[in-house]
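[step 3/7] fold_predict: job queued, chain A
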Amino acid sequence: MIFLLLIYASIFAINAPGLIKRKERKEFAAFLIFYAIAFALGLMYVLDIPVPSPMKGLQYLIADMLGMKYPPPG
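[step 4/7] structure written:
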């Protein structure tokens, strides 16, 4: 777990100051969002917490929310 924290801290220390210095606020916000998601998934993996399947979320979005059904096979 310490290795995970060191890796993520070094990635943040390398990328964040440049984005802040160049005042790229939208890029920094996107970086933080993806960074937080990746860190949470990595932490869940390290702590042996079951990682949710992204396919279930996509299936819910496509089939249930958008109402798009797949054609039957064959």
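[step 5/7] annotate
The two ends are 48 Å apart (CA to CA).
Residues 2-65 form one domain.
exit 0
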